[in-house]
Design goal:
two-stranded parallel sheet, single chain, 6 helices, 10 strands, alpha+beta, Jelly Rolls
Length: 312
């Protein structure tokens, strides 16, 4: 049996050892949220990669869209300059048409890629909850008509934005809107624009991609019946005028001799009965009228020929 003094010392030493071990143990867990770096680590987004956040996704909402919706996020694009409504694209029926995608959770978006009709502009919008009125414009996809017609790619870097829902729409342009590919990225890929799988599609022609051409201006020679009807008319009038002049001159030449053959008695009776101007005056008047008609015919012929030559 140990002496009482030894037992007291042992008890004191055991108590001191247990107290030191209790002080070194971590405090019990509580329901309070972590703070500082622990909180940041807990809420940190998964690794920001250069993968396409929209790859293979189907839209959760679409308005006034025609075509296969899957082609917009299938990673395939047409050759630059492909026809605007090629099978690899969807068309927008109006400027209010749109496509909306759910990324699954809030993600950072810092770059977008769009291949769409060259002469149109589009808006890319984002929202954290997808409710009406919550979408904000992230960037504008400007037209690239200066690069040519048809489907053309646009690669755009934007200020990093935290969104869960992405929407493309609010088109503005010639009224014929289309998109063949829409992609979004957290980290900007290298190279940028990214490499996409190409798909053969008919190329756009300038006439088809441009606005409807103005009606072709027809020349005088191309207007049916214009020249063919005016020229014969002018020829007929010219013949009539020349013949009239010749006839008037012939009448003027015969009128004096006829007057000499008539007797004085007949001439007196004629002078008494005549109430109009003398025959010579009437002849001159007829000549002047015929000359006027002939000059009009000549002017008409001149105008027709001159206009015909100018339109060539």
């Amino acid at each position: 049996m140990q002496p009482p003094r030894v037992l007291a010392i042992g008890t004191w030493f055991s108590t001191l050892l247990l107290a030191s071990l209790g002080a070194a143990a971590p405090p019990p867990a509580t329901g309070a949220p972590p703070s500082g770096r622990a909180a940041a680590d807990a809420s940190a987004e998964p690794e920001c990669t250069t993968e396409n956040l929209l790859a293979g996704r189907a839209p959760t909402e679409h308005q006034q869209i025609s075509g296969r919706l899957a082609v917009v996020t299938d990673g395939a694009i047409g050759t630059e300059g492909s026809q605007w409504d090629a099978p690899l694209a969807v068309t927008f029926s109006s400027s209010s048409a749109s496509l909306t995608y759910d990324l699954g959770r809030t993600r950072t978006v810092s770059a977008v890629y769009v291949q769409g009709d060259a002469n149109d502009t589009y808006h890319v919008l984002g929202s954290t909850d997808g409710t009406p009125g919550s979408f904000q414009i992230l960037t504008t996809v400007n037209d690239v008509f200066s690069r040519g017609h048809g489907l053309r790619a646009r690669a755009i870097r934007i200020a990093p934005a935290q969104v869960r829902y992405l929407r493309i729409g609010e088109a503005n342009g010639d009224g014929r809107f289309s998109i063949s590919e829409f992609a979004a990225y957290c980290g900007v890929p290298t190279p940028f624009p990214p490499t996409m799988r190409g798909v053969d599609a008919p190329l756009a022609t300038q006439a088809a991609a441009a606005a409807p051409a103005a009606p072709k201006k027809t020349t005088l020679s191309e207007q049916p019946g214009t020249t063919t009807s005016l020229l014969p008319l002018a020829a007929v009038l010219a013949v009539f005028g020349v013949g009239g002049i010749a006839g008037a001159r012939l009448l003027a030449a015969r009128s004096p001799s006829t007057g000499k053959r008539t007797s004085k008695k007949a001439s007196k009776k004629t002078s008494k009965k005549a109430s109009g101007p003398p025959a010579a005056a009437r002849s001159r008047e007829g000549v002047l009228r015929l000359v006027f008609i002939a000059s009009g015919c000549a002017a008409l012929i001149y105008e027709v020929v001159w206009l015909h030559l100018l339109q060539r």
